[in-house]
Design a protein that fits this description.
Its EC number is 1.1.1.47. The chain is α/β, with parallel strands linked by helices and 265 residues long. The chain contains eight helices and seven strands. Bound molecules: NADP nicotinamide-adenine-dinucleotide phosphate.
């Protein structure tokens, strides 16, 4: 029996990057998956993912368009999923943006859009699915936050960093409020992963090398590893895990800020 057999999952921003890896791992474990996408260019990517996971894993999938920061679109999306796949039992709030702008020139529009996409979406989606989860006394909500929620990982994205800290704290607040209904709310904190969001960073070879050097495991993590963490938190094995931020960062966030070459010997 697969770990998530016949569970209904929704992954926001599921057509590419980390979201895609999460969709693939959930489907591999037997879940039926709704793949949310936003701009219309991503529709064909979402369609390809749907076709692939349906044929390889013999599960049901659907693709669904919505801006996760807009209440009406979120409500319509979840209603459509309920009518097609059933009530959402696993919600993965993955969609996020990180427009690179440093503080002195940061626009109000970027600030608002970042918070709308990275934080308000968690409020809107979690509230919409939580009512059914409360009735069933079961459900898993997993938010993809970041190492940036506890470390200032870059000096040029203060809006992103603070939004991820807010998302992590929101996770903990919801864990307390919804825990009494046997709903688990947790977060996963990736360090840098190679996706469209980090293309620029990886194009710069020096930056790439520094990123590897800074990591205690001397390697960059993968999107699949984030999917593995999500599967664990979505499974019965994580029944008593609530309000936790599971860092998948090679130990980056527990490393002291000092040269570690003396540890080599
Ligand atoms: P990505 O490749 O840029 O993908 C972002 C996803 O978010 C896309 O699927 C995009 O949808 C979706 N999205 C953006 N705005 C949306 C909106 N308003 N409504 C619905 N969907 C929207 O980024 P990623 O690297 O996979 O990041 C995924 C998550 O992991 C984010 O929350 C990010 O902050 C977090 N994270 C990433 C890293 C990293 O190094 N990559 C590290 C830590 C945390 P479309 O495909 O339709 O455009």
């Amino acid at each position: 029996m697969k770990r998530l057999a016949d569970k209904v999952a929704l992954v926001t921003g599921g057509s590419r990057g980390i979201g895609l890896a999460i969709v693939e791992r959930l489907a591999e474990e037997g879940a039926h998956v709704a793949i949310n996408y936003y701009p219309s260019e991503s529709k064909h990517l979402a369609e390809e993912v749907k076709k692939k996971i349906e044929s390889v894993h013999n599960i049901k999938a659907m693709i669904i368009h919505a801006n996760v920061g807009v209440k009406e679109e979120v409500e319509q999306m979840v209603t459509d999923i309920e009518n097609s796949l059933g009530e959402v039992e696993i919600l993965v709030n993955n969609a996020g943006i990180a427009p690179f702008e440093s503080f002195l020139t940061l626009s109000e529009e970027s600030w608002d859009l970042t918070y709308q996409t990275n934080v308000k979406s968690i409020f809107l989606l979690s509230q919409r699915v939580a009512h059914n989860m409360v009735k069933k006394r079961a459900g898993k909500i997993i938010n993809i936050t970041s190492t940036a929620s506890v470390l200032v990982t870059s000096p040029v994205i203060p809006h992103y960093i603070s939004s991820k800290a807010a998302a992590t704290q929101l996770t903990k607040a919801l864990a307390i409020e919804l825990g009494r209904y046997q709903i688990n709310v947790n977060a996963v904190g990736p360090s840098t992963i190679q996706t469209d969001m980090t293309t620029e960073m990886f194009e710069d070879e020096e930056n790439h090398k520094r990123e590897i050097e800074a990591n205690p495991m001397k390697r960059i993590g993968t999107a699949k590893q984030i999917g593995d963490a999500v599967v664990f938190l979505a499974s019965d094995e994580a029944e008593q895990v609530n309000g936790h931020l599971l860092m998948v960062d090679g130990g980056l966030t527990v490393k002291a800020a000092q040269p570690d070459d003396h540890l080599e010997h």
